Inverse folding.
């Protein structure tokens, strides 16, 4: 059983902050500054360019990729880190589309994170006017799996409401229609158990700065199923995805396996921070995290519904149908969130009216939830955002 008091002690949290925004940017793992200092001083400082081999920098994207792979149910050797998530979405989509050359449609839902949709739109424009991004309501995805769809691109957990897609069922259904699947696990990895191999997913991508706590700008990851990985053509054919980067050949030959999804030089300092963050998982079990997250979310929903009648639940009520966040709709949501932040309860706001709160058991406990409910009650019952003091102190986040 995970000792959550022990994992909480592994994070630096500012005094008086109740941090309910780890679903957007995880907090600082206490071990990260030392790990970064070591990488900077002992490795970069002393080894200079030899650090690529001596300090093992070159292997970090796949070594740490494997540690993330364990959390998302990937086969060893099939996850690599690098670039931003938007780039990894593009890469996965481009390869997936080529695997279905007779079809022209990318299907997604209109709750997906805009960057995923923008990348798909941009790729379609590059490929030609017969390519199309089709978006439907999340609940209509299953019925929209038609024979012209090449790729189904979905984010498992909706960033606004926390609604969870059924990855196993939708993957199976899509594949029965000859569709390749690309899953965005940005709001899943480190938040709930994922089993990409068990679900038979074709591609998966995700970021590390949310529930994996790699810090601002931490690299994204990509997974390609073993049955595809040596066949896919990387659209972003950078030198570090080449079979032999240091032969400096003039033409591209894709590397072996997941290595081909690398593009350019890996961000070593960010990877060092991520490595320190991944050490927390040596003391934590993702199934325990999920069970505790559902408990914390349920506690928050019950507390808010009992004392903040103006707020309406925007997340699924059933804990197994949502990710690790709870969202409420409130017409004064933006102002109320600013007032909450002034009081040290940090969540975020997503247009048009969503107050969003992430619950991350690695460092959030029942007392934090109770405090958040108390402060939210005070803010909404007393319309604190309307008082001159709060107007002065509220800052944009
Ligand atoms: C689901 C999802 N996809 C894509 C992104 C974009 O990630 P990045 O800024 O790393 O490209 C985010 C978060 O910003 C996200 O939540
Ligand atoms: N990546 C972010 C950033 O660089 C700045 C501000 C927010 C973010 C986020 O991650 C937003 C996040 N994907 C969301 O779910 O809203």
């Amino acid at each position: 059983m995970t000792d959550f008091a022990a994992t909480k002690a592994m994070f630096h949290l500012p005094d008086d902050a109740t941090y309910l925004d780890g679903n957007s940017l995880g907090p600082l793992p206490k071990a990260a500054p030392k790990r970064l200092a070591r990488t900077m001083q002992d490795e970069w400082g002393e080894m200079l360019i030899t650090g690529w081999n001596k300090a093992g920098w070159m292997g970090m994207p796949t070594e740490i990729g494997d540690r993330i792979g364990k959390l998302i149910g990937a086969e060893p050797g099939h996850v690599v880190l690098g670039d931003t998530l938007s780039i990894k979405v593009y890469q996965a989509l481009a390869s997936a589309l080529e695997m279905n050359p007779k079809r022209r449609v990318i299907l997604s839902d209109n709750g997906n994170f805009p960057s995923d949709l923008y990348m798909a739109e941009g790729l379609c424009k590059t490929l030609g006017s017969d390519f199309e991004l089709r978006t439907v309501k999340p609940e209509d995805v299953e019925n929209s799996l038609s024979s012209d769809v090449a790729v189904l691109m979905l984010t498992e957990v909706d960033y606004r409401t926390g609604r969870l897609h059924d990855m196993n069922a939708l993957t199976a259904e899509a594949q029965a229609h000859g569709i390749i699947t690309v899953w965005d696990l940005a709001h899943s990895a480190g938040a709930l158990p994922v089993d990409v191999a068990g679900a038979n997913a074709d591609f998966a991508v995700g970021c590390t700065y949310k529930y994996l706590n790699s810090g601002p700008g931490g690299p994204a990851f990509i997974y390609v199923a073993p049955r595809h990985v040596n066949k896919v053509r990387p659209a972003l054919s950078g030198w570090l995805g080449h079979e032999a980067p240091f032969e400096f050949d003039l033409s591209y030959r894709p590397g072996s396996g997941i290595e081909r999804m690398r593009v350019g030089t890996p961000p070593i300092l960010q990877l060092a921070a991520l490595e320190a963050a991944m050490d927390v998982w040596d003391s934590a079990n993702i199934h325990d995290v999920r069970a505790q997250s559902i408990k914390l979310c349920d506690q928050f929903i019950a507390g808010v519904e009992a004392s903040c009648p103006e707020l309406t639940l925007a997340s699924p009520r059933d804990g197994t149908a949502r990710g690790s966040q709870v969202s409420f709709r409130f017409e004064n949501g933006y102002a109320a969130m600013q007032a909450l932040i002034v009081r040290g309860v940090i969540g975020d706001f997503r247009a048009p009216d969503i107050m969003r709160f992430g619950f991350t058991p690695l460092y959030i406990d029942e007392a934090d939830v109770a405090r958040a409910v108390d402060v939210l009650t005070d803010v909404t019952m007393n319309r604190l955002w309307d008082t001159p003091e709060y107007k002065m102190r509220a800052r944009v986040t």
In short: The chain has two domains: 4-30+285-393, 32-282. The chain has a mean pLDDT of 97. The two ends are 36 Å apart (CA to CA). The first helix runs from residue 4 to 8.
